[in-house]
Amino acid sequence: MKKHTLLATTGASPQVVTETLYAIHDKNLQWPDDIYLITTSVGKKEAVKGLLEDGHLQRLCHELNRPMPTFDADHVLVTPGADGTEVEDARSLADHEALANFIMTEVRNRTASPDTSLHASLAGGRKTMTFYIGYAMSLFGRVQDTLSHVLVSKDYETLRGFWFPTQAQAHRYVANHKGQTLDASTAEVTLARIPFIRHRRNLPQVLLQNSTTVKFADLVELINLGENPAAIRLIVDLPTQTVRVQGEGGTIKIDTRLGLLELAFYAFMARATQESESDWTRPHKDKPDTALAQVLLQELLPLCGLESSNDRAINFKRLEEFNFKTETFKSDTLKALKDGMPQNWFDSRKNKILHNLAEKLPESLVRWIAPTSIWTEDGNRLADEDIDKTLKGGGYGLPLRSHQIQILEPTGPQLR
User: Fold this and answer.
1) Which entry of 86, 200, 289, 403 is 20 to 30 Å from 328 by CA?
2) What is the pLDDT of residues 295-322, one digit of tens each?
3) What does the alpha-carbon distance between residue 401 and residue 403 come to, in Å, rounded to a whole number?
């Protein structure tokens, strides 16, 4: 790895940073190249004063004969409140939501590059901060990333004069809360590595990109929605060429825009599910399906602003004339719609839809809205746990129930 970062949440006690570094050294773990802290405006003042102005971070590195990680006041990140300004102490619900979003985004951004590694410490700060950074690591953490908590001997916990075990006379003896003098060199500092389940592969690609702000509540609701498929509501919005997924009551809405071909294919699958049409199967390898080509044409023409009919030849001629003017579709598409839909073309549409959905939605949610085999060869609806296991000869549709799907029709043919 080219760069190793220590990211820690801190509150009014920045000592957790030097304690963590001491424990990293003691266990001979990878030493960080840079340090970033997430805290409040009050916590930043404490961190800058203790670690930088009073020199405790540099003193630690000198005593341990370790290089000084890159760290200055700009590396102390203050969480924004609901109004976007730096918070002194997050107390309102809105402030905590902003805090969650900020921590999620920071962890996501610092795990974006494959040639970096992240050590996240949840030893300091409010309980909500430590929860959020732990949860963020579970969502975005990779195999090279670690999560830890630092443990300090009971007598030395929360002592403002204790920064790490040292024999330097100027800092060796510290007073406790009762005024008693303690020897800092005898303190025990232990790094407790926290195992966590990594869910990164289940996240949509768009949330792994630095350009996207991670909204904690939305992400959690999306993941939970995939575990509660009965609450999913799917809207196939043909006028805007989007597929909209939302929770029961519209609490969250995520739009995925599809191309004309994919949208027509998806609308056909959604309509087949609504109407319990179980006969639409994957084309045989050596036998293009003309019936599939016709239903796709009937879905596609209105999206192009054209009228459709029950005559496939008429429909294709209209599409051909439209394409002569616009050059919208490739020759293989025209061939598939004229001569019959081949198996590989069918698979290509299905896979492209799956890819587009996976870019915006968690894997657990995509499973319920992606086209797949949902009927047996006899036309019986598969049980949820058996969906996509009976591909040969099974009818295709969407795993949702018909009442969960809404199709918004085009307003009318408008020649373009």
Assistant:
1) 289
2) 999 999 999 999 999 999 999 999 999 9
3) 6
